[in-house]
């Protein structure tokens, strides 16, 4: 499935932008950083939850390296985190955990490094090719090239992979940057698929089935917004692969922060316990809150983009979400914005309007695209909308360049 | 400086072993794991400190990836941790921090990976050789070989390095496993030195000067015993090296757990604030407490080893410690035990007495050595002493093997 684009028109700022007064906290000329997907949108929810989510640890607790020496797959996984992960996937219905080993990582980035180590071997004759369909998550390239591993090598866009040899395909679904649901592209014998499901949560996309791929990666950063905790987890069907991933983590960092594991365990359990009640007066269903907020932001963004007459946004299909029971479309964590008439450097255009984004080239595609975070704080989102509204009536780059000089 | 050995004799268990009743909590046939240096010895101190060291974090705090975007060396270092690290080194006088950049890591293991990345380049013609003087920390080999990097390669014992090319020497001081203070062995032009100072704290060794090497690695695991937190830090003289280390951490794990950083910041500050008062009735000087405990353990161990007539222990010089003001010897976190008359597998001998240790071969040396943790819980230390006492009157492996069968 590819990311179709939706051409929409108009200009001026949306009068519907909520809480636009929030921008008063930021100087008008502040450069807003929407390059990273820093998930500060979720702070208001967690603030509302009060002490129920407060994590306390005494000075003498969790001194040991070990969390659960009896766990054959991962000796540093806290049992409470394991329980919460299973409870949450069970409640949301987005992934099967029965029959899977769970490996915890310092974010899902470390887990991807661990997977690459686990499914390759120093005895193989050549480095294993690793591919992902463009536009692909820009960090994959950096992860693959980091220390020039002899086990694996980045081989670019999966659409262009035509070697008759073992390979690894990274399948990001929903895709970062484009937000679309994806399957593998190469689909040949001897291929190993790694499913990066960081965004397969109800606030971003309809949950259409409980997935059961061989290797599935998730992260608290995108699920609940606790990016600072650096907690990711892998659901792994083959326990031998899980054990090798654990070995990687042992040599790389001797396990994963216990404080983060225990805090995220608490947070995930709070989410799981409350996520089956919809429309409750307490407003304590995290996914309902987040989905409503992202839906509003996307409405405002689409209206603004339409008015500019300059950009397009991907169009997402309406689908039945098993979790909410509604027919809905995706509201991704990133907007994948394309300059309508082609452009050499859309990232620069945004930067000149004081919006830091990540340009298409880094995702292996056209520099006329930019990826813009949709999960920033309200003030930053409002500034994005303000500034996007001001990029109007410009029909070409020259015209734009003339104006800003 | 090398690890001289001290031959001592006798047999039977030390009657001076304190709290030997503690062993009642462990079944008599429990296999005790003294392979890792799991620092659970420190739990009793932190328990005594009560709520002063309790760490509390609310559900909405520290969601962002960023800790300090204005820090040019390390954007994910929590300012509070930076302050505590400086305060602690200042109070102890073991390392200079003025003029250094601080980089935080998920344990010092990750920092070593980061250093290797930072001081090499993909443009260099060959992999840089990395060496350490035997006996060297066993994990170095695993770290160097993990993903078969094209940037660097493990080249074994520094004493045998004779290539006329750039190299990296890992200088572990005090050394793991042998506990001795060390300097570089190769000392040629074009060499980069990485000082692993995990054990350069007053409970383990006299603090004889405030070190100011180019790259110095430390870890909370060995300093305060908070191994589960996975917090290490590097003091780096060249900010460009620090920046490259930060880049490594960004691609490897997108930073380091904020919960761990903030908790360890609190713990280090508590240690720093109280570590200049000696003999206070509160007994709240962490290094004083720890040094006293290790000193007692070493006395008991030396007496027990002497009685067995079978093993030797390294002898450490008496030195003036600038921190305590006393003349004292080292009391390392590991005992580096040598079978007197040579042996093929001392690790196996200990294992048959239900003591898990790490054998000499893994440290690049004679299998007649074993490394045994001295920082275990009291019960385990007592069981070690009990069992060591029982390995007596055996003058050769055959005799031993006959007895245990």
Automatic annotation (TrEMBL), chains A, B:
<dbReference type="InterPro" id="IPR050478">
    <property type="entry name" value="Ethylene_sulfur-biosynth"/>
</dbReference>
<keyword id="KW-0663">Pyridoxal phosphate</keyword>
<feature type="domain" description="Alliinase C-terminal">
    <location>
        <begin position="32"/>
        <end position="391"/>
    </location>
</feature>
<dbReference type="GO" id="GO:0008483">
    <property type="term" value="F:transaminase activity"/>
</dbReference>
<dbReference type="InterPro" id="IPR015421">
    <property type="entry name" value="PyrdxlP-dep_Trfase_major"/>
</dbReference>
<dbReference type="InterPro" id="IPR037029">
    <property type="entry name" value="Alliinase_N_sf"/>
</dbReference>
<comment type="similarity">
    <text>Belongs to the alliinase family.</text>
</comment>
<dbReference type="Pfam" id="PF04864">
    <property type="entry name" value="Alliinase_C"/>
</dbReference>
<dbReference type="GO" id="GO:0006520">
    <property type="term" value="P:amino acid metabolic process"/>
</dbReference>
<dbReference type="GO" id="GO:0016846">
    <property type="term" value="F:carbon-sulfur lyase activity"/>
</dbReference>
<feature type="region of interest" description="Disordered">
    <location>
        <begin position="1"/>
        <end position="27"/>
    </location>
</feature>
<dbReference type="InterPro" id="IPR006948">
    <property type="entry name" value="Alliinase_C"/>
</dbReference>
<protein>
    <recommendedName>
        <fullName>Alliinase C-terminal domain-containing protein</fullName>
    </recommendedName>
</protein>
<dbReference type="InterPro" id="IPR015424">
    <property type="entry name" value="PyrdxlP-dep_Trfase"/>
</dbReference>
<keyword id="KW-0032">Aminotransferase</keyword>
<keyword id="KW-0808">Transferase</keyword>
<dbReference type="InterPro" id="IPR015422">
    <property type="entry name" value="PyrdxlP-dep_Trfase_small"/>
</dbReference>
